From TrEMBL:
Residues 75-174 form the Methyltransferase type domain. InterPro entries: Methyltransf_11 (IPR013216), Methyltransf_Superfamily (IPR050508), SAM-dependent_MTases_sf (IPR029063). Pfam families: Methyltransf_11. CDD domains: AdoMet_MTases. The lineage of its organism: Bacteria, Pseudomonadati, Campylobacterota, Epsilonproteobacteria, Campylobacterales. It comes from Halarcobacter ebronensis. SUPFAM superfamilies: S-adenosyl-L-methionine-dependent methyltransferases (SSF53335). This is Methyltransferase type 11 domain-containing protein. GO terms for molecular function: S-adenosylmethionine-dependent methyltransferase activity.
Length: 333
């Protein structure tokens, strides 16, 4: 299988999580009051998601074949309510599924999601920036569509933590959102990656293992030439499968794997610098979105004022119209 791939096929027929999704659909009436669960019944079957889950499963099963008859210890970073961890558990492996959204973990635990899938997942609330595990604890670490939600700076801290807890000889499997290049050389706020910013990730990963330069270069070249028209066309073409309301979205996704060859310790100074960068980006993003919200509120107030004026004009017109009619009929003077 390819180790580096852009997901841009709008007609993938197979979803390897179909059995688990059918279980989610079957229990929608029972569990659907939790909005995230209800939403992800559809989102998990989106065309972009099919490709991400299939890639992750293929990469995991390839590694599984290399370690035949071995019970693997697996970590899912940013599991949400997606049943990928249940799929892995049913293959007989030990898996921990971790997410920073406490309500998701509480939902999964309180509703005993394992009982629905006959799985044995250990659900845990936690943060990728500081994983509560010893070094070299897991054979496989994977994360699907999570990295784009992490601020610049913090994203490399999370990567270093994933690789810290991954055993030498273990496999890291990642998918993340991407978009065409913009004018910036860094990810502002929590944007998808571009060829420029993803290249930084690959450079960082090379500290831990061999990065396939041929496949990496091919993927980065593809992203370098990626256009918004191509992105939008994927979403337009896949809309009829996805059962979503919006016509298009502003990203695609990529998947890549790395087999860890050696440990690499991110020194404390570098970690602090990355953390400070992440905090700065989050603060900048907070003020940016606050300004956007203030501007939109002002626009909404102005629109509401215009609407009220138009309604008043309409009311005055209707009143004057009926008065003229009544006068013509001689019913009023």
């Amino acid at each position: 299988m390819k180790n580096y791939i852009l997901f841009n096929n709008p007609s993938i027929k197979e979803n390897k999580l179909q059995t688990q999704l059918d279980i989610m659909k079957k229990n929608k009436d029972k569990l659907g009051e939790y909005e995230t669960f209800s939403n992800y019944i559809n989102i998990c079957d989106w065309m972009i998601r099919r490709q991400e889950y299939n890639f992750t499963i293929d990469a995991f099963e390839e590694y599984e074949c290399f370690n035949e008859n071995k019970k693997l210890k697996v970590l899912d970073i940013g599991c949400g309510v997606v049943p990928l961890c249940n799929y892995i558990s049913l293959k007989g492996h030990e898996i921990v599924a971790l997410d920073p959204i406490k309500s998701d973990i509480e939902f999964l635990v309180e509703n005993d999601m394992n009982s629905f899938h006959n799985s044995d997942v250990e659900y845990m609330h936690g943060y990728g920036e500081k994983l509560p595990f010893e070094d070299n604890s897991f054979d496989v670490v994977y994360s699907v569509s999570v990295m784009e939600h992490i601020a610049t700076g913090n994203d490399l801290i999370v990567l270093s933590e994933m690789l810290r807890v991954l055993k030498v000889g273990g496999r890291l499997i990642l998918t993340t959102d991407v978009m065409p290049n913009d004018e910036m050389n860094y990810r502002k706020y929590t944007y998808p990656f571009t060829s420029k910013t993803l290249s930084t990730v690959f450079d960082f990963l090379s500290n831990y293992g061999d990065v396939d330069n041929k496949e990496k270069t091919s993927l980065l070249d593809t992203l370098e030439s990626l256009s918004w028209e191509q992105v939008h066309q994927f979403w337009i073409d896949s809309k009829r499968f996805d059962q979503r309301e919006e016509e298009k979205r502003e990203y695609l996704a990529v998947g890549f794997i790395i087999d860890k060859k050696q440990d690499y310790v991110l020194d404390e100074y570098e970690k602090i610098q990355l953390f400070l960068q992440g905090q700065g980006v989050l603060i900048e993003g907070f003020y940016y979105y606050q300004d956007v919200a203030t501007l939109r509120e002002k626009e909404m107030i102005e629109k509401e004022n215009v609407i009220q004026q138009l309604l008043q004009i309409k009311a005055n017109f209707e009143t004057n119209f009926y008065v003229r009619i009544l006068k013509k009929l001689g019913l009023i003077k």
